[in-house]
Write a structure and sequence with these properties.
Low-confidence stretches: 1-17
CATH class: Mainly Alpha
Radius of gyration: 40 Å
CATH architecture: Up-down Bundle
Number of helices: 8
Mean pLDDT: 88
Shape: rod-shaped
Largest sheet: 4 strands, antiparallel
Length: 402
């Protein structure tokens, strides 16, 4: 049993390690209730198309004469009738086309929601990576400060430094410890949010990369032509054109077909031809919208909405292009900050190495070495911040352009 548990742990660990950001994105798309809700909206809109194929309710009437009219062939006792109204030829087909276009528009809402989910997964993933790296950086530097503390204690024993220098190092070491503790708490909270987004167990492990390199994700030439909101506006123009056709059909007369049946009681007081012969009356009618201003107003509105799509598309495209341009600029700026921070890390480390080398022949300036080490930590965190920000910006660019 113990060996079996070990094997299961190894398999589980391998499975977790095999998961990548793409795997998490796919999991979120498959599990997302928000996406399933949008897909349900698509199906509902598609089911409405069946409404266009239905005729108005058939009218069946039945009545009994309270005062029976007497005719030459007998008294009329009751009346049966059935009638069916039928829209003008092609009206239902035009409505069906309009409903199909309206259903297609729902697909763009689903696509937009998918992009939002993908971006949110990436954003949380990079935030978790940032917290993990902060923990690593602070732990690494805390250990270095521990080395400086040991060196300072040794120097203190030989009267080559003061207790004040030792305490300064300890204070900074305690601050790093607090930063590590805070980053761990933040990482745990982000992990729970991430797992909720994936709609799985909140305590499930997340496999994070050891190190990310922002220089490997340089975005090429991008465009926003395939953004769902733009595609939806283009599709809307066809919707309004079909709406105009549908309204014109609906404004035409409606046909009415029916038949009335009146049973007649035969006369008993005399003999006549066709005595008691029932009455059968086929009917044909028209429902003419003489006062059709409401249809004309709706047609006018649909035409104006169709014309409005041109301006809406242009406006939305300008907004998205400006947004994309800003994101690309910010991405390049983050790379500049990253390279500057990396250069400062190297220069600071050289200064530290020079100071430590001088320690072999003279008294170490603990105040300076501590300041240099803290400067290095600051540059390391700036480099990390620029890296994470670059990946976030790349995810945002993909949201607009993929």
């Amino acid at each position: 049993m113990k060996n079996l548990q070990i094997i299961l742990l190894i398999i589980t660990a391998n499975f977790i390690n095999a998961q990548s950001l793409d795997d998490y994105v796919q999991m979120a798309l498959e599990n997302s209730s928000a996406i399933k809700n949008k897909i349900a909206d698509e199906k509902i809109a598609g089911a409405k198309i069946l409404e266009a194929r239905q005729y108005p309710d058939t009218q069946i009437n039945f009545g009994i004469y309270a005062l029976q009219p007497e005719t030459r062939v007998g008294n009329q006792v009751m009346k049966w009738g059935i009638a069916q109204q039928i829209p003008w030829f092609g009206t239902n087909k035009s409505k069906e086309n309009w409903l199909e276009k309206a259903a297609e528009l729902k697909r763009f809402d689903t696509d937009l929601k998918k992009r939002e989910i993908i971006y949110k997964v990436k954003e949380l993933f990079f935030w978790m990576y940032e917290k993990q790296r902060i923990i690593y950086i602070l732990k690494e530097n805390k250990q270095i400060l521990k080395t400086y503390e040991d060196m300072a204690l040794g120097a203190l024993a030989n009267n080559r430094t003061t207790m004040t220098e030792v305490l300064k190092i300890r204070i900074k070491k305690n601050e790093l410890h607090a930063g590590i503790y805070q980053a761990v708490k933040d990482l745990n909270a982000l992990q729970r949010q991430f797992n909720r987004l994936l709609e799985r167990d909140e305590q499930a492990g997340v496999n994070l990369p050891v190190k990310l390199d922002a220089t490997e994700i340089l975005p090429g030439k991008k465009h926003i032509d395939n953004f769902p909101m733009l595609s939806k506006i283009i599709q809307s123009k066809g919707l309004y054109e079909d709406e105009v056709k549908m309204l014109r059909k609906q404004s035409r007369p409606k046909l009415l077909f029916g038949v009335d049946y009146i049973p007649v009681n035969p006369r008993t007081d005399m003999t006549v031809m066709n005595n008691g012969k029932d009455i059968l009356m086929p009917m044909l009618g028209l429902s003419i919208p003489i006062f059709n201003r409401s249809y004309q107003a709706k047609i006018r509105q649909a035409k104006l909405k169709g014309e409005q799509t041109h301006w809406a598309y242009t406006e939305q495209k300008i907004v998205l292009e400006n947004m994309l341009d800003g994101l690309m600029t910010d991405f390049k700026n983050q790379l500049i900050l990253l390279m500057a921070a990396q250069k400062n890390i190297r220069e600071t480390q050289r200064a530290i190495d020079v100071s430590l080398k001088a320690y072999e022949t003279s008294i170490l300036d603990y105040d300076m070495i501590l300041r240099l080490q803290l400067d290095k930590i600051g540059y390391q965190l700036k480099a990390l911040e620029a890296t994470v920000k670059a990946f976030e910006l790349k995810a945002r660019i993909d949201y607009l352009t993929n």
